[in-house]
Design goal:
Elements (H helix, E strand, L loop, with lengths): L2 H25 L18 H24 L8 H29 L1 H4 L3 H19 L10 H4 L2 H16 L15 H25 L3
């Protein structure tokens, strides 16, 4: 990446990491809202999980940017690009779920107010913009589109088993409404893969 792109990448990744970290910490300091009582319960939501993955990836990317700017390195390692890709796909799934599903049901003012604005919109878009148009050191293989599905698949196992089989949590995403989890699950899988495919396509297009 050019020096200008590296600086922009550093700024964006720092904002994503610091803001997300501050918000997650706030969950343990009383900012729990109405859906959870204790901070650790926030991790039952894919919003929190996906943003944490993206924040960790952003931190690693920011460290790489600093090394490049200081002359200690001249490129971003491929594994870092892959990790940022996984985080970007995860938070973009959160973003698209909010835009296409939650906002029409609960209203934009509800799902994009307060800290939710960052977790549901600004963090996903910042990650997407930086990954696709700025952090273009190396291309991604087709195989990576399947690797990017791992967070969603792991969460799906947790959510479906907890809601449908063990009934340890409520169906707060209403994905089992009418008992149709076997229909909503493939739709989410297809949607996530579409995000992964298009994100990789755009990223590779802008690589050197």
């Amino acid at each position: 990446m050019s020096r200008t792109k590296t600086i922009i990448s550093l700024i964006i990744n720092s904002v994503v990491f610091l803001t997300t970290t501050g918000i997650v910490i706030s969950y343990f300091c009383g900012n729990t809202g109405t859906l959870i009582e204790y901070g650790y319960e926030s991790f039952k939501f894919f919003t929190t999980d996906s943003n944490v993955i993206a924040a960790v990836a952003s931190l690693i990317m920011a460290i790489c940017d600093i090394k490049i700017l200081s002359g200690k390195n001249n490129h971003i390692p491929p594994w870092v690009i892959l990790f940022k890709y996984i985080g970007t796909v995860s938070v973009m799934l959160t973003f698209m779920t909010v835009v296409c599903y939650l906002a029409p049901i609960y209203g934009p003012a509800t799902v994009l107010s307060g800290t939710s604005f960052h977790m549901h919109a600004s963090a996903p878009l910042l990650c997407f913009i930086s990954f696709c148009f700025i952090e273009t050191d190396s291309t991604l293989s087709f195989k990576s589109t399947f690797i990017a599905l791992i967070p969603m698949l792991l969460y799906s196992v947790f959510y479906t088993s907890s809601v449908v089989f063990f009934k340890t949590i409520t169906d707060f995403y209403s994905l089992n409404a009418g008992g149709f989890w076997y229909i909503s699950s493939p739709i989410i899988l297809f949607g996530t893969y579409t995000i992964a495919f298009l994100t990789r396509l755009l990223h590779n297009k802008f690589c050197k």
